[in-house]
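Issue: ligand-bound run for calcium ion - logging full I/O for the record.

Environment: standard queue, default settings, no custom constraints.

Inputs:
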Amino acid sequence: MRNSLFLAAALTTTVLTAPAAVMADGHLMVVDEPLTLDVHLHDKSFTYDNNWPVELEAARMTGVSLNNVTIGNTPDSNEAFNLMLAAGDLPDIVGGKSIKDNVNRYGPEGAFIPLQDLIAEHAPNIAAVMAEKPEVFNSILAADGNMYFVPYLPDGKYGRAYFVREDWLEKLGLEVPQDVDELYEVLTAFRNGDPNGNGQKDEVPAFFRNWEEVLRLVTLWDGRTSGSDTYHDFHVVDGEVRHGYVGEGYKVGLEHVAKWYAEGLIDPEVFTRGSSARDFLLSNDLGGFTHDWFASTAGYNDSVAEAVPGFSFQAMVPPASISGVRMEEHRRIPVKPEGWAISFSNENPVETIKYMDFWFTEEGRRLANFGVEGEQYDLVDGKAVFTEEFLTNDRPVNSQLTDIGAQVRRGFYQDYNYEIQWTNEHALRGIDLYESGDYLIDQFLGVTFNEEEQSVYDKNWSSIRTYMLEKQQAWVLGSSDINADWDEYISTLDKMGLNEVLAAMQSAYDRQYGG
Ligand code: CA
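Outputs:
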């Protein structure tokens, strides 16, 4: 059943149950005759699927179908890209995870088409988002100044937050810790005060599902660990590219983290327990404090409530650092190095960019975010609302969406409303708490190297990073002392070429951001 737009407008007070009523006038059609384009789109656990309901719906709306030719027998998207290159023929569209570096490397060599002119002429919806977020699109340009891919743009600001067992605080007569000293007191009380009430000193005061999050504690001593949502990344201060792991705050902070670890305030298995840490320690009433994602962490208030009576694990604002700064270093990045590009051998670049533009129209964006109308969601007052059946399915919402081809890393603009609908009240309250303060900091969106910078980086960075991580783990575990090691650590990094890497980052940064 199809309704005209006019009819749909006349029926706005009625909930329309007919699928996809918007298409009667074909205003999203990209071609007169059906067109099929080959696509390489790789993600770590799946590739593009010709039968995704979202693909079929997009084909119906635009007349363009994508045919999957991804080389997918590897979980590594970089390797898949290289296998595709080695095979010779580039498919019409190349996309998926981690394509930024690849298309920005091979684009200037002629493998991919620069997109600015095509977008200006044929893609008004992409152009509108570019005009809205110039700094974001600037960050994805290749070293030759061209844009070679349409990116995936995440939506929403908040990622991780600090969480504390409020029911434990109450049992021990404590308040939510407001600064680093109070946090130390609370963790010590969690260790000594038997808040889980079993008569054993078995509590794990601070635990981290991702071991890298233990490093995040250095921000409480004004140190830094990363400037983006990638661990161990560079960050920028007043136009200067720096690395946290040579900063004074890092040194002081890690010295204290080592002390907390030695005192049993931090999970003794923090480097080895792995991704099940949160699940295990919360389900068994053992864990007291962490730094992790809002929605999934708050979800334990629902899933653990029965096993642990009174369980309340709530977001808390970042404790103030030694200088009084409340900083949440992690946030969602506004653009990912993911999306899709048009290869030089594509014989329909205009139709292809129009098709890519479709995903930035109202209907296309809804399709990419929510799936198919009448299947996964209904339109209520012009807004996509997931069906009860979809939300209450056993399979996690994210996985269900990927299964049908929604929320996959084509170039698209995420709509945070897709996530709000399955974020529980505890998480929403926590987000409000963070919203009421100014805790987030600017993100480093990355640089694109020219050939010379790239060779400096390739030659030095990997071994420098490995050395930094080896040392920091030894310091946290107490097998080595950071104060005793520091001068030698800095001079070793000098010899390993850290300053050259920083200079390469800086010149790339200045070129990209006009520093
Ligand atoms: Ca106990």
